[in-house]
Amino acid sequence: MTTDSLFTSNSSPSIERRGLRDHVYDRVLDVLLGPGVEPGSRLSIDTIARDLGVSPTPVREALVQLERTGLVSRVANKGYTVAEPLAADQLESLFDARLVLESGSAAIAARNPESILPALEEALAEHLKLTAAVHDASEAGDIPLELLREYFAADWNFHHLIFEHTHNPFLIDMSEAISTRVHRMRQTVATGVSDAEEATAEHRAILDAFSQGPEAVEAAMRSHILKVRDRARDDSVR
Amino acid sequence: MTTDSLFTSNSSPSIERRGLRDHVYDRVLDVLLGPGVEPGSRLSIDTIARDLGVSPTPVREALVQLERTGLVSRVANKGYTVAEPLAADQLESLFDARLVLESGSAAIAARNPESILPALEEALAEHLKLTAAVHDASEAGDIPLELLREYFAADWNFHHLIFEHTHNPFLIDMSEAISTRVHRMRQTVATGVSDAEEATAEHRAILDAFSQGPEAVEAAMRSHILKVRDRARDDSVR
DNA sequence: ACTTCCTATTTCCTATAGTATCTTTGAATG
DNA sequence: CATTCAAAGATACTATAGGAAATAGGAAGT
Description:
Two copies of one chain form a homodimer. With 238 residues, the first copy, chain A, is mainly α. The first copy, chain A, has ten helices and three strands; from the N terminus they run ααβααββαααααα. Chain A binds a DNA duplex (30 and 30 nucleotides) through α2, α3 and α4. Chains A, B: It comes from Salinibacterium amurskyense.
């Protein structure tokens, strides 16, 4: 009955069979992706176990999984810590990796455009809607954190859909490694939403390229990521 | 003193501080990559723990890490099993992923050819040496398993060096996910060494392309992987 | 006053024990 | 004879406890 504290907090009555390990994983991931995560701060196994009302064993397994995301780093016999933010050169590497992965994946996804186009149209519409909402909130004064979160989610969803529609488990798996880093970059670099109009325009260009074959899609995606990189560079020196 | 059985078997007197978890990981990985691994067979945590003389906890952690390699699969409350060999469609996905990753990585590695060329030359020389050795052994009758292992290692080392010379931690990390699958494919598809001459020739073409810029290298790598895929397809229907 | 060493506390790491779940085997019934 | 249900065994999962290492604080010596 010691595990009740976790499950009762879950509103869903039907609980998927997937062990405490995954619950701990989700909880810790929420904390790491949420605001107020201090890089370098210790992630005590026992503390997490006590806070979540579970034993250290599933916590250890969850942390091993999290190592892969690059959000936590581990030193043997010393424990886990929140990973340091991406340095400048690591940021360049991240964009290089995105150029390789996303351009290639976009070309593969473009093999059958009819199955992906509706989903992309919907995602872009949502992205545009949130861009307008952010724009209004920005003029009104400040932007609510929840709105910001939704905007970033819509932005990334466009990229995520392209990965999904490759139907390639290996590429999808690699995209997850990228996803967490991009999310983390947005916390640290704080590139903001100043490029919202440009980003949506470039997404539109990618979408339109789907009717012109894989090569056009690949080029459009490459162009988009290169521009995102340039804007991120400008922000970091601001 | 229960851990002595592990460490005493290690001839190296200076042991890096890296926990039992990594030792278990290495041992299980050796078994999985070695011959005689039956897909679907159970990987009992307690059995492994007893065999290696450790407790189940570090074994669990090692298996979580191995999940990522795709060599083991897990069912909640049912345990770990040796992953099934790659199906035909998964093999296609693997080659698609290689096309994306390796072509892109080759282009990045080609940014400064002078630092990678000597290493590639050496790797290709070793590959050629082993190709000749395999050829001789093949005519003599049968090929020793150890020689076969060395040949495959030399073959992959060429690809591995290109990944390493991107100096991109994300791409290198992704290459490891590919590496284990390629190794596994060679066990199951048993494409053999019939294409040794063609493979070395294509590697030579890639190497020569480094003096013609990133685009040439990318094209050469793409051509190589496409040909490898074609040969693998021929083998599977043979 | 600073450095060094020692001690105590905290934390990770490993081992052992109990509980829940799945599989399998056997028997009983239609 | 086939099928279904039940019970027993095995296995994974979680929890608790003990031992080892590292860090932090304080005291003693230079």
